[in-house]
Amino acid sequence: xxxxxxxxxxxxxxxxxxxxxxxxxxxxxxxxxxxxxxxxxxxxxxxxxxxxxxxxxxxxxxxxxxxxxxxxxxxxxxxxxxxxxxxxxxxxxxxxxxxxxxxxxxxxxxxxxxxxxxxxxxxxxxxxxxxxxxxxxxxxxxxxxxxxxxxxxxxxxxxxxxxxxxxxxxxxxxxxxxxxxxxxxxxxxxxxxxxxxxxxxxxxxxxxxxxxxxxxxxxxxxxxxxxxxxxxxxxxxxxxxxxxxxxxxxxxxxxxxxxxxxxxxxxxxxxxxxxxxxxxxxxxxxxxxxxxxxxxxxxxxxxxxx
Length: 306
Fold this sequence. Notes:
Blueprint: E1 8-15, H1 19-25, E2 29-35, E3 43-48, E4 57-62, E5 75-84, H2 88-96, E6 103-108, E7 111-117, E8 123-129, E9 149-157, H3 161-169, E10 173-178, E11 181-185, E12 194-199, E13 213-220, H4 223-236, E14 244-245, E15 249-255, E16 261-269, H5 294-300
Parallel strand pairs: 1-4, 5-8, 9-12, 13-16
Antiparallel strand pairs: 1-13, 2-3, 3-4, 5-9, 6-7, 7-8, 10-11, 11-12, 14-15, 15-16
């Protein structure tokens, strides 16, 4: 069992430009403005709490004019955020007044939940929890209702047998089952420590596009822990990439049963390695291999409102 994994690190999706949605409507902080390692003409935007604490971070590749993704199996179905107890009426009222007013309140696993559609029709949700993490609050989203960070990710699968075994190997334990969803949790992990398995045996395979999750990342403390996880996964038969420097964390990737791309990311060195905490996400910070393109990128990329 991989005791090194503590919960989620981040979730990365593909989209059209969504800076206003996450910073203005949802009130997250844009903590990094960089570009895609493999496509320098495309932003890579990070949103989270004040410093981008692992387990609070949502990241996006906003490809211009990208075709809409088609939901199906073999992907992350819903990304869920943690909000304080009693805060859902605030969020339902706020979202209902926006153009993104497709909201649905329900109770799942005994938790009050607000399901919403994002700007690219991605499936998002808020869940009321007793979450002690400090939020990034703003003038119109006070601290007592602000998003705390990620709560969970759901994996939409045709069959969950092999995924159950992988999650148990990754330190997740069975918690509960409701309808066609099985919940797993890492006890004593970070606050983003839940994975739901949603079984849709008759659904077609997902086709990725705008609104699709590209990968889901799990947190380990440092490179030593990451190397231990990599070796254990490879010994079990998974094909795992070499360690890749992503500037703000080190990453390894492998394809999980059912097709979802998993990443194991380190908590170090963090998002303040190249700009101070007070100014995170303000300046364009290309990866080192794209630094020579900085001025051209500033002219090419659509300006973002702070």
